[in-house]
Design a protein that fits this description.
308 residues; alpha/beta; Purple Acid Phosphatase, chain A, domain 2; 15% strand
């Protein structure tokens, strides 16, 4: 196991993530090629290549009286974008009518893929956003970290879809699992390296961070809106929905036309622009690649959007 000093960490990050200096399209292709080789993310959707025509909206939805809700899409370790978006929310909230309370709902996927994953969690646990009575939902990437804390053998799979960036942000360099393909001896060395990293990560993960991950909610309901990371399975009541679907579902939810009792506000599936129709609002605009972190502003019957 390699525990990185600040200088070594910077060198390792530059070596591992040099591709992010390429164009957004090239970086996107690189990330999506990794998705295609990951058994856990075999259903990952690519970004939309051509924008669809805007839908005709007929549904009127209402936020709870006295609340202005700000729902924030997938952050993926982009602390820089999070701070910029919070500044916009601060400015907007300052203009709300007297007596209206602003609240931020985060839709999950705070970590992985972005290099400031630890910083995002430290910010959330610092109390810096307490004025917004924040609601934090569980994303599939937080689920992956929690699984790694229980299963050392999950580490290799986790790094395939972004866990390596989170480990780097906490000061750890993931073992080179490709070396294990060379010989049984190398395989044993890689297993040992993963075990040492796993033990050290469990020991050094701040207790406040662990408590944060363990406290995340699968969904949140407010007024006519239901907030969830990935979506819901059509045709099932909320009580019959599985957490697996709430964190991972894609096409079965996205492509169906069946309406839900609530308007679903979600992230998880990156798109080139915010999606809104009478069933759902999709807020994952691929911040870790595009630099565009998006939020919905829900106040009364009004729906508006903010982004970096």
């Amino acid at each position: 196991m390699m525990v990185l000093t600040r200088g070594k960490l910077a060198d390792a990050l530059r070596a591992r993530f040099g591709q992010f200096s390429r164009s957004a399209d090239a970086a996107r292709r690189n990330i999506l090629s990794q998705f295609r080789t990951s058994p856990r993310e075999e259903d990952v959707a690519a970004f939309s290549e051509t924008p669809s025509a805007p839908p005709v909206l007929q549904r009127i939805t209402q936020a709870p009286e006295g609340l202005c809700l700000y729902a924030v899409g997938d952050i993926h370790g982009r602390m820089d974008l999070l701070l910029r978006l919070v500044e916009q929310i601060d400015a907007d909230a300052a203009q709300l009518p007297e007596g209206v309370k602003p609240q931020i709902i985060f839709l999950g996927d705070y970590i992985d893929r972005g290099l400031q994953s630890r910083d995002v969690i430290e910010y959330f646990t610092s109390g810096a956003l307490d004025r917004y009575d924040p609601v934090f939902l569980l994303g599939n990437h937080e689920e992956a970290l929690l699984r790694f804390l229980q299963e050392v053998n999950f580490g290799t799979q986790w790094t395939r879809f972004g866990g390596g960036e989170t480990l780097y942000s906490y000061g750890f360099a993931p073992p080179n699992s490709r070396a294990s393909l060379n010989s049984h001896e190398e395989m044993a060395k890689v297993r040992e390296a993963w075990t040492k990293l796993w033990e050290a990560f469990r020991e050094r993960l701040p207790e406040s961070h662990l408590s944060f991950f363990q406290s995340l909610k699968p969904y949140h309901v407010a007024g006519d809106y239901l907030f969830v990371h990935a979506g819901l399975r059509p045709g099932l009541s909320l009580e019959k929905q599985s957490q697996r679907d709430m964190l991972w579902i894609r096409e079965e939810f996205l492509d169906d036309a069946l309406p839900f009792d609530h308007l679903i506000v979600h992230g998880h599936t990156p798109e080139d622009a915010i999606h809104r129709d009478d069933r759902r609002i999709g807020l994952d605009t691929g911040a870790f690649l595009t630099g565009k972190l998006s939020a919905a502003r829900l106040f009364g019957t009004d729906v508006a959007f903010l982004n970096t």
